[in-house]
Write a structure and sequence with these properties.
Rossmann fold, 2 domains, 7-stranded mixed sheet, two-stranded antiparallel sheet, disordered C terminus
């Protein structure tokens, strides 16, 4: 596996690395070499290793890699697509994770956020929000309907010393659609919503965000909706447009996402 190195020039305004940073980089290169060697060995022996052991070893390797990616993200103002892809791979849930363009948009918005952030669905974006917003003292709250996944993501935050709250919120009926049951402890005044849940298979998809949480969103709130190329999300955006919001769909080589902005008084209408 090729390693990617992010090099910041002095012209970018970044301070040169200290001897401690140089030492950490050397250690990281050594760890990557060991991991690559271990994976190569596992490939040769995988036919003889019991599945539970292989899974445990893979999880341990991904944990080390994720920790390395988190350290790199903490020292990076604007993460590259390569670093985001590497972090996504280390997280180990790529089939349910956002594409690099969406993840980059989440990082950029989180780095500029000045108000609390609400996340619908949890995963790699929870980690990114913790790094770029939570570490600055911005409150980040995530809603997750799978309790086992909520526990996994919460454990990951604690393990890596990252701030953030992941609340278990089961899906319930709101008449025409299903959406998260809003926890009593959920506050208000959210200025950013990262919407990557509930799953598209949910009745109504993600449409419930605005009708259910409108009183908890700031008038200037921005919603980042992933998977805007899918028919389910297009239906959601069409419904939201009718409620009086501005929708901008951003396309990338691997997919698309939408940036939804509230108009004046949109959230206070009955």
């Amino acid at each position: 596996m090729e390693r990617e190195f992010e090099v910041e020039s002095a012209g970018d305004g970044m301070a040169s690395q200290s001897p401690v940073s140089d030492f950490q980089d050397c250690v990281q290169v050594g760890i990557e070499d060991i991991l690559s060697s271990t994976m190569a060995t596992l490939q040769k022996l995988k036919a003889f290793i019991p599945v539970p052991i292989k899974l445990a070893m893979k999880q341990a390797i991904n944990y080390v890699r994720l920790g390395a990616c988190i350290r790199e993200l903490k020292s990076t103002v604007t993460p590259s697509n390569g670093l985001l892809q590497k972090t996504n791979h280390a997280w180990g849930n790529e089939s349910w994770s956002g594409d690099p363009a969406y993840l980059k948009a989440v990082c950029d918005a989180a780095a500029k956020a000045q108000m609390p952030i609400l996340e619908c669905g949890s995963g790699i974006t929870t980690i990114l929000l913790a790094i770029y917003a939570g570490s600055r003292g911005i409150k980040v709250v995530s809603l997750e309907h799978h309790q086992s996944w909520q526990e996994k993501v919460s454990k990951s935050l604690r393990r890596f010393g990252l701030p953030g709250t992941v609340l278990h919120a089961r899906l319930i009926s709101y008449g025409d659609f299903d959406w998260y049951e809003v926890p009593e402890e959920l506050t208000s005044g959210f200025g950013l919503v990262v919407c990557d849940g509930p799953p598209a298979s949910t009745r109504g998809g993600r449409v419930g965000l605005l009708p259910v949480c409108k009183d908890r969103l700031d008038d200037s709130c921005v919603v980042l909706l992933d998977d805007a190329e899918r028919a389910e999300e297009q239906a959601v955006l069409s419904t939201w447009k009718n409620s009086g919001v501005d929708v901008n769909v951003i396309e990338s080589a691997t997919g698309s996402y939408a940036s939804v902005r509230m108009r004046d008084s949109t959230l206070t209408q009955s």
